[in-house]
Structures are given as C-alpha cells and as structure tokens.
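Tutorial handout. Part one gives the primary structure; part two gives the three-dimensional structure as tokens.
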Amino acid sequence: MPAMLLTGASGFLGGHLLEKTSPHWNLTALSHTRPLPGTLALDLRDREAVLALVRTRRPRVILHTAAKANLDACQRHPEEAAAVNTTTVAILLEAAAEVKARLILVSTDMVFDGARGLYNEEDEVHPLSVYGATKVEAEHLVLAAPGSHLVARAALIYGRPRHSGSSFSQWIENRLHSSQQVPLYTDQFRSPIWVENLADALLELAGMEYSGLLHLGGANRIDRYTFATQLCSAAGYDPALLQPVSMHTAVSDAPRPVDVSLDSSRAAALLRTPLLDTRDGLLRMTRAR
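Part two.
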C-alpha cells in the first residue's frame, strides 16, 4: 500500500480526505491547531521536524491542504500568512526531494483578480489579496521544482464538515436553522465544488502521475444568492430568509474579486470523477449521511 502524507487533516477539506484516504493509502495525517485522534500534531513551519518526519515515513505523495485561508486575517497579518501559505511549501518541497515524493498543493481561485471569470490554466494570475499573493508564490515554488508535482486550484468549497472546519453552505444552513436572515451577494461569481467531489478528484489525482497545474471547480458559474436558493430547494428550507445584496456594500479588510469562476474542462477530460454542478452537488450533499 503506497504511503501518503496529508496536511491539514483537521480542516474542512482535510477532514473529508482523512476519511476517504485511509482504506487506500498508508496514511500519515497531520494537524496543528485542532489535532484529531489518529493524527500527528506538527507545525509545518518547523523545518527540522518536517524533514525528520518525511525521512521516517517516506511518503510517495504529500497532499498539502493546510493553509491560512481567511482572507481578512491574512490581510491583517501578512507575515503569518506568508509563513503558513508559502514558507511551508518550500519546506515540504525540500523534504519531498529527499525521498522523491510527489507534492500536490491545493491552491485557490483567489489567485485571479476577477475581472473576467471562467479562467483556465493558461490565464495570468493577478491576486487582489494577501492570501491570493501568498498562494501565487507557493504555486511558483511548486511549478518550478523538479519532479512530478501538481498545483490543484480549488474553487469555493461547500458541504458539511466531517470533524471540524466550516464552509459557505454550512454558514447558510446555520443561519436558516436559527431563523436569521442570510445576506448573499448577487454580483459575485464562483464555480463552487462540493467537498466530497473535490476530495474524490484529489485522491484520483494522487494515484496518477499528472503534473503541472489543474483547475478543480464545479461545472457551473453561479452567484451566492442563486446558490443559496438551490440549497433551499435541495434541503427543503424556506428561502424567505435569503436576502439579496451587492458585494460592493460589504466592508472588509481584504478586497474581493467579482468573478473568479474557473474553467475546469481540462480536469473534467482527465478524471473519471465527474465535476458536479451545484444542483447535483447540493442534492448529493443533502442526501449524504
């Protein structure tokens, strides 16, 4: 059974990967801020500790999902964001080179400025936020390193958490459950992907030798308000609490792009795992345990 090192196992995506990965890989799962049973607590900024672990476990694949992803927190603390999102990638690449492991970096649609939308892998990056900039720098490190490494840019991830973490859709559901109004942008566009769908795609890629850059978004471009109406339809919620608003009325530390929808046709042609649109993904989400 091949060995895998999974980072960010206590995060939203990492928690789903943790459950899906174990039967197929000899898994070493790392968490830091919220260690889970069966995972190792490790600060990925500790170079010597990372090198020692990788030398011992000798993974074939390092699936790197850990990140500081809150846009406003990154904007307020750029040095910490750079350390977590960029420096750790340099350390993991150094460790991977020692044992000839393959690194898969989960990146983000926030590397784009949102001026156009439906970005493909050939489009130039131009991040608006500190978070996006730190991920661009991490991408450059991975793409420049020798070996069969992969940058997988994920779109907005939705779904229900397995262990910890949260998501955009979970925030909507929490507010609906507590009978609170849900303000939602009508003029910001993404290509949301169900967390289970993304996890399946990443694990399929982990078993391949594909390298370079790949977009992993859902099959449709959609605004947040329309997404929420689809969620209400799939889960049987009353949509009366949904409140359409403009993103330009929001006040935040980090600038938000208008349209970072992704063209994921390259991945769709490569993978057996279908990249679902939001209607199908939300239906599957609400029917899952």
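Part three, for discussion. The two ends are 28 Å apart (CA to CA). The chain has a mean pLDDT of 95.
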